[in-house]
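Class prep. Sample record?

___
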Amino acid sequence: MIKFKLKQTALLAAVLAISFACQEQNDVVTPELQDVPKEILDQIDALGFNSNEVKMHDGMLFIEGDIAISVEELKQMQPGKDLAVEEHYSTDNLVSGSPRTINVYVNMPQKYLDATDIAISRYNSEGLNLTFQRVTSSGSADITITASPWYYYWFGILGSAGFPTASGDPHNQILMTRAYYDGVSNINGLATTIAHEMGHCIGFRHTDYMDRSYSCGGAADDEGDGGVGDNYIPGTPTGPDANSWMLACGSPEGDRPFTANDKIALDYLY
């Protein structure tokens, strides 16, 4: 996800407050974060994630800002070899059965449908063996885009996605926190965020996973293998790609269509 620090500007705080009020979430009781057991933090460290950026609620772990993993899923992950280089890369599990059409259902207001159509058009224009189409029924969906649970706002989680399954299906859900994204005015910026989350669902990890400070600022922060793989995509650069759609952080108003290197990565995988 394209993560943006909530405390960076007073203006953003005001937008959040106003847009959250529009969600008609009255009489909400502030949820409590669960204490993360040391053995889980140790496993997160062993997998290469940053254990200082972990939130836990109702059996779900929220790691590195936009990855949602259940405690049970975490227990099944095994540490792998960390490739500490800067390039495009993918998870071990990818979407199989190509050529394949992936159905996307959007259960959100119209502007999210419009942004999803733009994101789908960007993928389909690349002539991949994966074709995306938006459907009007949740029953036929491979990926559902919907509003995040109300407590995401309180925890500062702007949204979440996941990675393909071991059986070769895309991750089936993208959650977006309306209290944040309802205030985004640039439809192409919103499309970039959705395309980013779709990228996770089909197996792309952050372009700057080896040092999130490249796009997020702050101290150097290596996401590591994460137990899901960090496989180099041949033909992509060994240095940062400044405008990649899969950078860990960026302004949600910023439009980042696929770069030349992004297109190489997409074409190689699919």
Observations:
- DSSP finds nine helices and ten strands in the chain.
